Amino acid sequence: MYNIIQLNDKNLSELQSIAQELGIKKTDSLKKEELVYKILDEQAIAGATKKVAAEKLKEERKVDRQQKRTRVTVKKESTDKVFTANKNGDLTKAKAETTVAAAKVQPVAEATKAPVAEKAPEAVVTTASAPEKAEDATPKRKPGRPRKTKTEEKAPIPAPMPVAKKEEPKKAEPELNFETEAPKVVKKVVIEDSPILSEPEDDFIPIEDLPTEKIELPSELLGKFEATKAETPIAPVAEPTPATAQRPRLRPRDNNNTPYNNNNNNNRNNNPRPVQQQRPAQQNAGDNYAPVQERRPVIEREKVYEFDDILTGTGVLEIMQDGYGFLRSSDYNYLSSPDDIYVSQSQIKLFGLKTGDVVEGVIRPPKEGEKYFPLVKVGKINGRDPAFVRDRVPFEHLTPLFPDEKFRLCKGGYSDSMSARVVDLFAPIGKGQRALIVAQPKTGKTILMKDIANAIAANHPEVYMIMLLIDERPEEVTDMARTVNAEVIASTFDEPAERHVKIAGIVLEKAKRLVECGHDVVIFLDSITRLARAYNTVSPASGKVLSGGVDANALHKPKRFFGAARNIENGGSLTILATALIDTGSKMDEVIFEEFKGTGNMELQLDRNLSNKRIFPAVNIVASSTRRDDLLQDKQTLDRMWILRKYLADMNPIEAMDFVKDRMEKTKDNDEFLMSMNS
Questions:
Q1: 473 is in an annotated binding site
Q2: What's the DSSP call for residue 471?
């Protein structure tokens, strides 16, 4: 058998030879790929044919094996020799109700038949003097359930002799239970054919001319009985006393499945059962024999698989008003979803958790009546050990500083984008920068943010970046998620303002919690003008309305969002790059921009005139700058940039950008560009 990989590795000639062996015709006209699939199909057909033939042969052998075995059948209309005792004590022939065909008995039934043969002579002795034809009084035992013989009312009733019950497997011969009872009326017993589990053999040797007197049984029968008794694990039975000596009776365990009950009432009327004589015998039997417990097969139930300590979950914690919380998934923009993980109030208090904490831990499947996956064990909080997070300083009490570590946006070489080189040189970005990108419509602000984000991700993999898109187009969200190596959280323009506000709030809380644990976080917000509009929509009316319909208190929360950017002393920083829209024709946008105009410590302005002339990046170099850039640039770069800015001050934005772009395209990196200024 060849698989598809082995066939693909072979050349065409080898495949043709294999196909000829399998009986495939016209192999010369087939291509290699078609020939491979032809061979695979032929192998599958051949395998299936062999499997069907094997199963058919197995069934035939099973049928032949069953036909060789002789089954127990009952002929209702036929008669057999059944003897009853008359008043004189003679044995007379009576018409039997059932006739059982002679057959070989299963080895499983040997344990049930041998005690019957052993007790047969004793039963004959206790029934008064019998004629010499006593061999007919003990008819040959047949496999299956025994017959019930007719006796008169005054017949002496020996005590019952209970024997251990043996349970057979399913689909085997009907289970029989040894129970000694008083001779009952004759019952019609129909024994159904059942599959025989093993090869049958003779149960006992028939003995001819059995005398009526009590003598020792033949050695062959005793040996057979002892061998069967040793093989079958039956509970030991004490030697019966003369008062309780009785032939064991075979009674079907399940009377509902046989015609035993059909003739029960009729036979009981003909031969009433002497109950009073049987009770003392039963008491004696109870004294001599211990009760035998029925052994039932142990049913192994399939163990339910436990998922404890296997499933792990992570999410951003949102604490509800009642004290408990949920871990929200970033796949659903941190909103309520089916992936939410329940966090109990005790866990929140134990670990000192806050809204925005990124919790990772062990979860378990919900039990009956539970709706969410509960958090079982907390592993990490914001990437740190829970003991470290418990003693953290709140974000509001951290000391903010000017950015003193610069983000490297250029690797060096011709692979760096022009946007990253211009921003890195004229408006450097540091860790903890509060940058405001002032943009007119259609100036390429989204592309500029994408280039800056990819440059930071490539040069600073330790930084955690979040791209927060508020009130943007859905196609831009998809493009940003596929092209930027950052976590993209978006709320498109078709969503309500409440959703904008909620997503922005939980993203800011997540960034604060990461900064508290010493991480560097960068948030790209597009745009802060739309976010301020959303806050203005959801904020309650205060009665003080500014020009353009802006509520006086509506801009407080967006200012808190933008003002959260800071460089933290002794580790950690939150950098926010937000875009502000101007010249949109809306008075509200102008008011919002005026409110945010002096809050940032870095400003990058885009010019519509540059984008109209297809000059990208459309950065107004003269108007763009960074506060305290001396903390970010080295002294040599500062001196050269001072000369360059003095030279570009007399130019308009178009001339300045043309000059800088032309020189940058001729150099490999910014260092080479600054060195070329001497020439």
A1: yes
A2: E
Helix orientation angle between 445-459 and 418-426, rounded to the nearest 10 degrees: 80
Ramachandran quadrant class, 333 (left: phi over 0; alpha: psi -120 to 50; beta: rest): left
445 annotated ligand-binding residue: yes
CA–CA dist 664, 674 (Å, integer):
9
Strands (E) located in 174-282: 176-179, 249-252
In the structure encoding, which two tokens stand for residue 170, read together?
């399913």
Q: Domain coordinates of the chain in residue numbers?
A: 2-49, 310-391, 398-674
State pLDDT tens for residues 504-530: 999 999 999 999 999 999 999 998 999
Instruction: Supply the pLDDT for residue 534.
Output: 95
Q: What pLDDT score does 496 carry?
A: 95
User: Is 363 annotated to bind ligand?
Assistant: no
CA distances from 669 to 88, 408, 414, 416 (A): 133, 12, 7, 8
DSSP class of residue 625 equals: E
Q: How many CB atoms lie within 10 A of CB 127?
A: 19
In this structure, are residues 160 and 197 in contact, taking their beta carbons and an 8 Å threshold?
no
d(CA 665, CA 679) in angstroms, rounded, equals 16
442 is in an annotated binding site: yes
The domain 398-674 having CATH identifier 3.40.50.300: the answer here is: yes
Q: Is 223 annotated as a binding residue?
A: no
**Beta-strand relationship, 566-568 and 81-85:** unpaired
Q: Which of 25-39, 70-84, 478-492 shows the highest mean pLDDT?
A: 478-492
- pLDDT digits 0-9 by tens, 436-456: 999 999 999 999 999 999 999
Contact 358, 383 (CB under 8 A): yes
C-alpha dist (Å) from residue 206 to 71, 102, 139, 203, 470 = 19, 11, 10, 9, 100
When pLDDT is averaged across residues 19-26 and rounded to a whole number, the result is 81
Task: For residue 430, say whether it is annotated as part of any ligand binding site.
Answer: yes
Q: Establish whether 431 is an annotated binding residue.
A: yes
Q: Is 293 annotated as a binding residue?
A: no
Among the residue ranges 122-126, 318-322, 408-412, 629-633, the one predicted with the least confidence is 122-126
Q: Please tell me the distance from the alpha carbon of residue 29 to that of residue 657, in angstroms, as a whole number.
A: 67
54, burial (CB in 10 Å: exposed 0-12, middle 13-18, buried 19+): exposed
Q: Which CATH class is domain 310-391?
A: mainly beta
Question: Rounded distance, CA 534 to CA 364, Å?
Answer: 38
Q: Distance between CA 88 and CA 224 in Å, rounded?
A: 36
Least confident of 174-178, 357-361, 384-388, 432-436: 174-178
The β-bridge partners of 81 are 95
Is 444 annotated as a binding-site member?
A: yes
The phi and psi torsions of 267 (rounded to 5 degrees) equal -70, -30
Does the annotation list 99 as a binding residue?
A: no
Query: Cβ(616)–Cβ(418) under 8 Å?
Result: yes
Q: What are phi and psi of 315, to 5 degrees?
A: 180, 175
Confidence category of residue 7, pLDDT binned at 50, 70, 90: confident
Asked if residue 359 lies in contact with residue 381, where contact means CB atoms within 8 angstroms, the answer is yes
* CA pair distance 123, 126, nearest whole angstrom: 5
Angle (CA) 209 214 216, round 5°: 80
Going from the C-alpha of 70 to that of each of 74, 176, 199, 568, the distances in angstroms are: 13, 19, 10, 95
Confirm whether residue 523 is marked as ligand binding: no
Q: What is the CA radius of gyration of the chain?
A: 49
pTM of the model: 0.57
The two structure tokens encoding residue 210: 């059995």
C-alpha span between 457 and 520 (Å, rounded): 12
383 is in an annotated binding site: no
Q: Is 165 annotated as a binding residue?
A: no
